[in-house]
Amino acid sequence: MVQRIEILVTLNETYLPPLQVMLVSLFENNPHQSFRIWLIHRQIPDEKLTALAQLVNSLGGQLKPIKVDGQHWTSAPTEARYPMEMYFRLLCANILPKSVKRVLYLDPDILVINSVQALWQVDLGDKMLAAATHSGMTHLVTGINNIRLGTDHGYYNSGVMLIDLAQARQIIKFADIERIIDEHSDLLLLPDQDILNFLYGEYIKEIPEENWNYDARKYPLYFTRSLGKHDLQWTLVNTAVLHFCGHPKPWEAHHDNRFTALYLNYQQLTQRRLQVFAPIDVASSVKPTTASDS
Fold this sequence. Notes:
This protein is about 35% helix and about 15% strand. By secondary structure, the chain is of the alpha/beta class. The strands form two sheets. Strands 3-2-1-4-7-6-8 form a seven-stranded mixed beta sheet. A three-stranded mixed beta sheet has the order 5-10-9. It is globular and about 45 Å long. The chain starts with a strand and ends in an 18-residue tail after the last helix.
């Protein structure tokens, strides 16, 4: 029996279209894998959750949306730099049911182009989570972030994270996150990612970015750093996760790099699926779950 992989996404209504593309790529390139998709949100309309559940069911998966009551987060700083969904990602262990032991978090601006099973099976040892760094050619950015945040480890990208939820429930606390925002707001350029590195970097196991969190902007860097080994053919065979970091995004005008056409192909595939799959009964899949159910 194939072990089910638990996938986590945390977003608002705006990011539903790219989420659909990401999910189609995930299922298409993991055809014999069972997935359960956990969506933590605050106010996505029911009709859009139903449409998403229909798509996930048509792909062979199960959608489990969890609506978080905003009243539990009234003291959390929220503005353009600190969207509510930021807290859901960092504090997912306290929101997901305790029966879920491990989860793979994926940003919506991602394409999954190969199997994620090896990532799911990574031995975390005594670490709380696994993530990749985007280190550049000379690690200069890492050094700058170390100085800026007072850390002594790589700067981990929070777009792809394998999380041991049992450990996270013990280690990650809302009060600590709130304190860091209050005391060090001027240092936080990418707030949730900076907080992850500032508070929890020592608990992170590094995984290869070329395989599990490939920055789609930086093909020339990967090619040069590998002395020409990591060309386009290598990437399409060996990379599982393409991450479209930065702006513009591939679904926006003016995005144009080696992977734009690949993204647009999956976007078209997603649109065809949305147009043709038969409506099905998804009532059980979209039954609201709340943090209190955990």
